[in-house]
Amino acid sequence: MSGGPTFQHFFPQASSWVEGLATTPVSVFVNGPKFGYASWEVGHILSLILIGGTAILMNLRLLGAGVTSEEPREIYRNLRLWQNIGVVGIIVTGVLIGSTNAVKLYNSSAFTVKMIALLAGIILTYGVSRPVAAANGAVGLMPKIWFAIGGAIFLAGFWVLCTTVLINVGVYHLITALALILIPVTRGRLRWGYIAGMVALIVAQFVHTHFIIKPDDYAHLDPVNKVYTALYGVWLVGAALITLFRGRGAEGGPLTKLIAYFGILVWVLAATAGRWIAYQ
């Protein structure tokens, strides 16, 4: 796919309205001298760090890693206020800075991915991870339903990211995130085997793309890098699947752990898409 879906594709009739947002009082206020556009951007990034960081801590606990000295419900109670602040901050600052770049965002598939990820992130955090953590890993009926909905939305956003030229390289952010998550989550021989496999793949890709193939031979580099990307994915997903079924901890079984993986990666996807908006 040469270009992914954008809001312009879905709502072409809103073009004139979007173009007029740059002159609204909100846009004038955001770009004004009192605070400045950069200040709102910093607030947006800090809000994303806040919700993403707290989601990581809470979901790592559901995976049996991270702050294991406290039960999942205690982690949830300690973090829920900060999660609320982070989500409110993302929405408020996003609306403010988005109004000044409305035309660019309207035509950006990266922005589409970010909005998909934001919707999925709110569903997976508030409808799934928080209730599951509050129940110490037990997954009730409603969290299962919300997980099916939020998970499908997350996978849709991930698919758009992977199939859209210019932003598809952002998949390496998610690969890196999952690779790091698996280090504390895996145990014993599985951890060392997993790390050894990752190191072998990294070394093989480096040698292949720097010595066997010339660094400027893009015609051959691109397909080779795609193969290694697929190999990373297979290795990481395989290791993650093993952790789902390798022992049932006090936090819950395979579904609880799967929810935790999605609950972390969805915010990585949101951050990744935001990062790549600048390149479209």
How is this structure best described in words?
The chain is mostly helical and 280 residues long. It has one domain (7-187, 246-279). It is 77% helix and 0% strand. The protein is built from 12 helices and no strands. It has helices spanning 7-10, 15-20, 25-30, 37-62, 72-100, 102-106, 109-134, 141-162, 171-185, 188-212, 218-245, 254-276. The two termini are 15 Å apart. 35% of the residues are buried. The mean pLDDT is 91.
Key traits:
0% strand, mainly alpha, 280 residues
Query: Number of DSSP helices?
Result: 12
Q: What shape does the CA trace take? A: globular
| Unreliable runs | none
Number of strands: 0
* Rg over alpha carbons: 20 Å
Helix-strand layout with pairing:
Blueprint: H1 7-10, H2 15-20, H3 25-30, H4 37-62, H5 72-100, H6 102-106, H7 109-134, H8 141-162, H9 171-185, H10 188-212, H11 218-245, H12 254-276
Helix pairs in contact: 4-5, 4-7, 4-12, 5-7, 7-8, 7-12, 8-12, 9-10, 9-11, 9-12, 10-11
